[in-house]
């Protein structure tokens, strides 16, 4: 026995006279244009190769920012450790 395919009974509910895709993208407030803009502005993740290249460039330039944290707390700890080391050497 064969199945009967579903048919679309309510053809009048589908609005085929709305704006086409090009018109929707031209309107800056439409869902499609906001979605496309968000996709373009989404943060792109760097490949492993690009990360490696940047790390090598930073090492070649002598940047130490990758090795030590540059925060107020870390600066305070380094300062206190230096003061403690000065006291022990004196």
The low-confidence parts are: none
Work out the helicity level. 40-55%
* Count of DSSP strands: 0
What is the CA–CA distance across the termini?
99 Å
**Residue-averaged pLDDT:** 84
Proportion of residues in β-strands: under 5%
Listing every helix as H and every strand as E from the N terminus to the C terminus, the arrangement reads HHHH
Largest sheet: none
Quickly count the helices. 4
Gyration radius, in Å: 31 Å
Give the class from helix and strand content and strand pairing. Answer: mainly alpha
The coarse overall form would be elongated
What's the arrangement of secondary structure elements?
Layout: H1 21-26, H2 31-41, H3 48-61, H4 72-89
């Amino acid at each position: 026995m064969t199945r009967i395919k579903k048919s679309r009974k309510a053809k009048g509910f589908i609005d085929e006279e709305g704006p086409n895709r090009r018109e929707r993208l031209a309107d800056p407030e439409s869902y499609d244009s906001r979605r496309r803009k968000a996709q373009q502005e989404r943060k792109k993740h760097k490949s492993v190769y690009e990360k490696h290249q940047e790390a090598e460039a930073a090492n070649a330039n002598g940047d130490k920012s990758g090795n030590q944290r540059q925060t107020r707390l870390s600066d305070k700890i380094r300062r206190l450790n230096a003061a403690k080391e000065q006291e022990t050497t004196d």
